[in-house]
């Protein structure tokens, strides 16, 4: 990295991260490119994992507004976005996510537990069901219909991780994707 410019480093990362990598590799690359320590990278890894983000593809599902919710500094968010989208590139805004008719439509009467089991199974993250269910039940959300009835401001108060927030909103409103590497 020292022999090439920062811009060139970001462009190389943009190409590299078209493939999926675990967050530790990504965070270590971000720290290296920006001249930060390994301890800083470890703090970024923890912050992203605390938000249920385990891979670069999980991070690529985030919209602009989600990045603002991540518990990272402005600088680290910008550096990480540069690695994924190029210098001054940004992820799409939520309002620009396209409708996705390939996403399943769920019955309003379906229980939250059944819904979460299906969604988390679809993203190969079954281990997230109980924590997401606990957060929704703590807000007295018991059915898909109750979740669908919420306004944007309500969603912000659910106490979900950034990843849960994005996946569940995409599924409920059938927008965007829930997996980067296929059509869902």
From TrEMBL:
Is Transferase given among the entry's keywords? yes
Keywords associated with the record: Kinase, Transferase
Q: Which GO terms describe its molecular function?
A: kinase activity
Q: What is this protein called?
A: WNK protein kinase
